[in-house]
Amino acid sequence: MAANPIQWFPGHMAKTRRMIAESLSDVDIVLELLDARIPHSSKNPEIKRLLGSKPTVTVLNKASLADRETSLAWREWYKNHVNACVILDSVTGEGVSDLRAAVNTVLAEKIARYKEKGMEGRRLRAMIVGIPNVGKSSLINRLAGGKRAKVEDRPGVTVNRQWVSTDIGLSLLDMPGVLWPKFDDSTVGENLAMTGAIRDQILDVEEIAMILCTRLMTVAPELFLSRYKLTEEECADRDGYDLLEAVGRKRGFLVSGGEVNFRRTAEMLLDEFRGAKIGRISLEKPPKGEL
Question: Whole-prediction pTM value?
Answer without folding.
Answer: 0.88
